[in-house]
Amino acid sequence: MRISIMSDNNTDGLDNFGESQPPVSGGFMKFYGLYWKKEYVYVGKKLLPGLPTGWIGGGRFKSDFDKNKFWINFWDQKGVYILYDDQLSPVYAGQAGLTRKGRNANESGGTLGTRLSNHIEGKYRNGWSHFSWFGFLDSEDVKSLRKKMKNSELEKRNNPKWDFLESSTSERTLNLLLDSFEAILIEAFTPRFNARGGNLKDAVYVNQFESVPS
Question: How far apart are CA 186 and CA 22, in angstroms?
Answer without folding.
Answer: 8
